[in-house]
Amino acid sequence: MFHYTVQTAKAVEEATQSLEESLKEEGFGVLWNFDLQGKLQEKGVDFKDNYKILEVCNPKEAEKVLSRDKLVGNFLPCKITVFEEENKTNISMPKPTVLIDFMNDDTLKEIAQDIEQRMIKCIDQAS
Q1: Measured between alpha carbons, how far is 5 from 2 in angstroms, rounded to an integer?
Q2: What would the pLDDT profile of 43-91 be if each residue is shown by its tens digit?
Q3: Ramachandran region of residue 87, left (φ > 0), alpha (ψ -120 to 50) or beta?
Q4: CATH architecture of 3-126
Q5: How confident is the model at residue 72, as a pLDDT?
Q6: pLDDT at res. 91
Q7: How far apart are alpha carbons 87 and 71 in whole angstroms?
Q8: Mean pLDDT of the chain, nearest integer
Q9: Model pLDDT, residue 38
Q10: Is residue 51 a contact partner of residue 30, using CB atoms and an 8 Å limit?
Q11: Cα dihedral 22/28/9/89 (nearest 10)
């Protein structure tokens, strides 16, 4: 699977707030909390589900991977989505290990594995 997804009993806003807190504890900052539902409705699209896209970055890790290969910037910042589906809240992310696999670089794969484990920890804590 290209993603890691969990369900939570929390509402989207509560799950998003919990996620932001757990990410901060792990050294990740939320660069952008994008309200997709609000933006689509602003553009005249009747999208009914609460849907947030968080762009997440750990500056030290970003520096490591970009110093190794600038093309990794195509995968940055990491994204985590928090959304409603069938009256349940989901927290989901594409797995960094799957994305970085395209680079064919074992060092980058090791870094991605560490980042992925830390982000999964944050998601699990927030759910």
Answers
A1: 10
A2: 999 999 999 999 999 999 999 999 999 999 999 999 999 999 989 999 9
A3: left
A4: 2-Layer Sandwich (3.30)
A5: 96
A6: 98
A7: 38
A8: 96
A9: 95
A10: no
A11: 170
With the CA atoms of 100, 58, 32 and 37 taken in that order, what torsion angle do they form, in degrees rounded to the nearest 10?
50
Close Cβ partners of 50 (under 8 Å, ≥ 6 residues apart): 11, 12, 13, 37, 83, 84
Residues with Cβ within 8 Å of residue 13, at least 6 apart in sequence: 50
* Interacting residues of 36 by C-beta distance below 8 A, sequence separation 6+: 47, 51, 52, 53
How do residues 13-28 score in pLDDT, each as one tens digit? 999 999 999 999 999 9
Instruction: Let me know: does 28 contact 56? Beta carbons within 8 Å.
Output: yes
User: Domain residue spans in the chain?
Assistant: 3-126
Q: Quick one: tokens of 7?
A: 């369900």
Q: What percent of the chain has pLDDT over 70?
A: 100
8-state DSSP, 74: G
**Cβ-based burial of 78 (10 A; exposed 0-12, middle 13-18, buried ≥19):** buried
